[in-house]
Description:
- This protein is α/β, with parallel strands linked by helices.
- The chain folds into three domains: 2-76, Urease, subunit C, domain 1, CATH 2.30.40; 78-284 and 386-511, Alpha-Beta Barrel (TIM Barrel), CATH 3.20.20.140; 287-383, no CATH class.
- Helices cover 35% and strands 19% of the residues.
- Strands 1, 2, 3, 4, 5, 18, 19, 20 and 21 form a nine-stranded mixed β-sheet that branches. The chain has a six-stranded parallel β-sheet with strand order 9-10-11-12-13-17, sandwiched between helices. It has a three-stranded parallel β-sheet with strand order 6-7-8, with no helix packed on it.
- α4 crosses α5 (158-174) and α6 packs parallel to α7.
- The protein starts with a helix and ends in a 16-residue tail after the last strand.
Amino acid sequence: MKAVRKIFGASLALALIACAWAEDYDLILANGRVVDGTGKPAFVGDVALKDGRIAKMGTVIGTAKERIDVKGAVIAPGFIDVHTHADDVWEKPRAENFLRMGVTSIVVGNCGGSEPDIAKFFHDVETRGVSPNVATFIGHNTIREKAMKGIFDRVPSKEEMADMKAQVDAAMKAGAIGFSTGLIYLPGAYSKTDELVELTKVITPYDGIYASHMRSESGKIFAAIDELLVIAREAKVRAELSHIKLSGEPSWGQSAKVIAMLDQARASGVRVTQDQYTYTASSTSIRSLIPDEAFDGGREKFLSILNDPVAKAKLVEKMKAYVKTRGRVDYAYAVIASFRGDVSLNGMNIVEAAQKLYGSDSLENQVEVILEIEKRGGAQGVFHGMQEEDLQSFMKHSSTMFASDSGIRDFGQGVPHPRGYGNNARVLARYVRELKVITLEDAVRKMTSLPARSFGFEKRGELAVGNWADIAVFDPEKVSDPASYKEPHHYAKGFPFVVVNGLVVVREGEHTGASPGVALKGAGVAR
């Protein structure tokens, strides 16, 4: 018995010694300017992390495996980008353009396009390892194309509608956070409002979100917003207006009217927020310049039109007329961002490309460039068409969050929109520090707690004890977005450290290769 007591006593002594040597925390970020994400004023202090979560804030006394003196830099929650097209994140897991501007969580499946099998998508994310946290919508265009098999300018049959509803339900059970539409793209452009209401009702029991790239962001924007609000009301869900903007000069100057319409809806009980990228140019496929009817029937239909002189001539006339209805004289506002068929055209606008290819920049030749690009596989474009005053007006609104509308960038390839490298940095550099459009604390709130609460990401978006340790450390005096339209391939500057779930993913401004990201799933069970 004495021997047993001696052994037990020795073991206890060793355990106490081990505890005395063990660090209190995994990581301490010391001497920072803490901006907690709520909008409250910053305070000077430390943030300590343990087991992937925030363990203590304020003045932290104790030992840690690592202590980083951030020397007065801002310690903020990691930014949440609620509108990305990084659906290939499991193939490009570093997502470096996002992490290096402080983004620790991304939402994919936007504008109606998503992975069709959400369960498989999350399995790939979880097993292959990714750097940021990832959530996804189920996309309307994705499920409609699968159900309706090529001919889209019609109402879906009862069987097709049942198929689409089943796809949405399966996606929600697998963890999708909601249902997204892209109503300027095929096949969603041909859908009617009642179809969208019925499909959105599928997500209601899951407390899902309806996110929409609306039918118009220019001349018919108020009708488009009304449709968004009708869907939210009838399905009894929260709505997200994707990348709010007023595109095309005839629409400029109406931001106050747009905001008033949304505020009136909020006052009546509709739950609706909006996101925004902080540039006056948009980006999508060059195909968007071609009328939808040219593709009703798939790519074969489009190619058949090009091979029919009469049909092609009618299409060309429509496109020449279209540019004039936008209040423009040519397609100079459209820049070729990424065309694999002829990389020498990347960075040129359509007028310049017409001059290069055909020796004339006539409107007829500009249309020919657009059709030839699509014939040879298509290309991404950057489209200049918004007003700075409207952008700032939307930015000031309390329900606006910032989102890049970007995919994962292949560094050095093409001439893509700079928002994929600089969106969050641009907010902090241009609109907080230089122009003082919004305060630092409110900018951080719009990138952290506002999206976290709106999208249901629990224990994220705010620096608080017990929350997950997603953190962006940045120098508010040095943060910048060197990416430009002409030279977009520059990472954001001024973010020395970024932490995801307690692990350092960016150290001294460089990606560490760590992959601590997790799947951010919706409820998955009908409530």
